[in-house]
Design brief:
heterodimer, A: 313 residues, mainly alpha, MetI-like fold, flat, B: 297 residues, 2 domains, 16 helices, 0% strand
């Protein structure tokens, strides 16, 4: 008797869970599991969207790694962005976060001003920077010229396009600033007082009190920064398009990466292969490379012990 | 005599030399920090200012290196509104962002609640999968998804492929809401149960009112996501101008007006403005949400 009620109770609770989870379970199956398996399948097929797909073995894989001229430049750019852009964003975010916790007058106004650029829609923000940094009439270069500094070509110069994108990324630092600010305010004040009593200098207080307390948040910022870099798409694409002068609807196809492949990122390759060259198979190969890289860093976030997002309770 | 007088004077003096240096140092620090603050503020604000000033220049002045308009051409904004399609893009963006936000919130709440408060086998696995989906670049699954929407359902050239999936929970929203719901003490849920509330009633009557700030944050994020999305409309809507959104259409201004940066910048201002307005009305919820994403669960 009691076992019957227990099983029926258990069944009811399982049904309850299923009911609450159902929107996501369907979403997971239809928009994640199925297309992911399908991507693996297509990576071994020759498919152009018109003729039925045919088995092609590892041909797509060989093509992407050995003959597709955009793959390695995109990977190199990604590495550059991880090393330079992510590092600078974390340092600058921490700096701005520190600054805002020290500002005592007009804190609210400063915080809002620092935060606003983060909200600018990526396309709009990139258009704005493409204008600000354009070598012809851009205000930045006219100011630099007036100051007697020889101004770079920014988005039109292959060696300056990624620094220009970095500048744009530093402008939108608001998210990191808020996260660092919250972390800095969480550091127990007693620790600072104790350090001060011991005669610690400002740098020593930062090094031995602040940094150890906020290091999990620094790690969080680094890892999510790397993951965001894997998804970096809109800004480099728009910057390249606007600077090159090739715009949608103009009849010409934009070869991504202008100038000289310097703004290529992996997501742009999926678009280039799939929707410009109609080589769905090779597009899926790049998609899987992107998937593998993203998941490696996501695993960092989720490590149970010392993990940054704790899945357990 | 003087000695006798000197002593009390020194005792009641407002600042001893040591205190004075400390005060001077504090003042110097204040000045240094606020100067840095102003410098940083200029870095964050000047791009907006230059964009706005350029958007008000005449066509010929926009070709020059001038920073400040000679004549203030407010008519540039009228010209942008009169551009064919602009109002349609505006409408489409509101539809995508509006529908998308409502669907996401409604479908993500029960999932987040189950992940936060139910005990069941596979809960940790589910949460890990949610986080994985959250971190997945949309380009990873785009080929099969495009084939599914375009070839099987014949919905390319519309925004439905972007709106419909939002009825099935959004990973980021689920995660953020789950983080928020974790902070609600279980005692409230137990009390509701004692009062005879079922799970759905508990969720609707007890949890939702307490979760308002979290829900507001998720709704805002989702609204901004849809407003900002470029890749989605590029894949599904590009072939049909009547389905374009603002973020997608904005770029075509540069194509249509070439070197007329003034009109392009006016359009840029018009795409930025709503987001910034929404932010001013909902600043608190938004900042809370950003903080929540960095908090350990």
């Amino acid at each position: 008797m009691s076992t019957v009620t227990l099983t029926s109770k258990r069944r009811r609770s399982a049904l309850r869970t299923l009911a609450f989870m159902s929107p996501w379970l369907i979403g997971f199956a239809v928009f994640f599991a199925y297309p992911l398996i399908s991507t693996v399948y297509f990576s071994f097929m020759h498919y152009d969207g018109f003729k039925p797909p045919t088995w092609s073995g590892t041909k797509n894989w060989k093509y992407v790694f050995e003959n597709y001229p955009l793959f390695w430049p995109a990977l190199r750019n990604t590495l550059w962005l991880v090393l330079v852009m992510v590092t600078l964003r974390v340092l600058f975010g921490l700096g701005v976060g520190l600054l805002i916790t020290k500002i005592k007058t007009g804190t609210g106004v400063f915080r809002t001003l620092f935060y606003l650029p983060y909200l600018a829609p990526p396309v709009a923000a990139t258009m704005a920077f493409a204008f600000l940094l354009n070598p012809g009439t851009g205000p930045v270069n006219s100011l630099l010229d007036k100051a007697g500094i020889s101004a770079p070509g920014w988005f039109n110069d292959p060696s300056w396009s990624k620094p220009a994108l970095t500048l744009l990324a530093l402008w939108g630092i608001g998210d990191l600033m808020v996260i660092f600010m919250a972390a800095l305010l969480d550091v127990p004040t007693e620790q600072y007082e104790a350090a001060e009593l011991d005669g610690a200098s400002a740098w020593q207080r930062f090094r031995y009190v602040t940094l150890p307390n906020i290091s999990p948040i620094v790690m969080f910022a680094v890892v999510t920064g790397v993951i965001q870099t894997m998804q970096y798409y809109t800004q480099p694409l728009i910057a390249g398009k606007v600077a090159s002068g090739v715009i949608q609807g103009a009849g010409t196809q934009f070869e991504p990466g202008y100038p000289d492949k310097s703004t290529l990122t992996l997501p742009q390759l999926v678009y280039n292969l799939g929707f410009q060259r109609f080589d769905y198979g090779s597009a899926c190969v790049v998609a899987l490379v992107l998937f593998a890289l993203s998941m490696v860093f996501t695993a960092f976030l989720m490590r149970r012990r010392g993990g940054l997002i704790q899945a357990g309770d | 005599m003087t000695q006798v007088l000197d002593k009390p004077v020194e005792l009641t003096a407002p600042v001893s030399p040591a205190e004075r240096t400390a005060r001077r140092r504090a003042l110097l620090e204040w000045v240094a920090i606020h100067s840095l603050g102003v410098a940083a503020a200029l870095f964050f604000v000047l791009p907006f200012v230059f964009v706005f000033l350029t958007s008000l220049m005449s066509d010929s002045q926009a070709l020059s290196r001038d920073l400040i308009p000679h004549t203030w051409e407010w008519g540039n904004y009228k010209k942008v509104f009169e551009t064919p399609g602009f109002l349609t893009w505006w409408k489409n963006t509101l539809l995508y962002a509006g529908f998308g936000t409502v669907l996401t919130v409604v479908s993500s709440i029960p999932v987040a609640y189950a992940l936060a408060k139910f005990r069941f086998r596979g809960r940790n696995l589910s949460l890990m999968l949610v986080i994985s989906m959250m971190m997945l670049p949309p380009q990873v699954v785009i080929i099969p998804m495009y084939l599914f929407w375009a070839k099987q359902l014949d919905l390319s050239g519309t925004l439905w492929p972007l709106i419909i999936p939002m009825a099935f929970g959004d990973a980021f929203s689920i995660f953020l809401l789950r983080q928020f719901l974790m902070t609600i003490p279980n005692e409230y849920l137990d009390a509701a149960k004692v009062d005879g509330c079922g799970d759905l009633r508990t969720l609707l009557k007890v949890v939702l009112p307490m979760a308002k700030p979290g829900i507001a944050a998720v709704a805002l994020f989702q609204f901004f996501y849809a407003w900002n999305d470029y890749f989605g409309p590029q894949i599904y809507a590009s072939e049909n101008q009547n389905a374009w959104t603002l973020s997608y259409g904005l770029e075509s201004f540069k194509g249509a007006h070439h070197t007329d940066w003034n009109l392009t910048m006016a359009a840029t201002v018009l795409v930025m403005a709503p987001v910034i307005l929404v932010f001013f009305f909902a600043q608190k919820a938004f900042v809370e949400g950003v903080t929540l994403t960095g908090v350990k669960g």
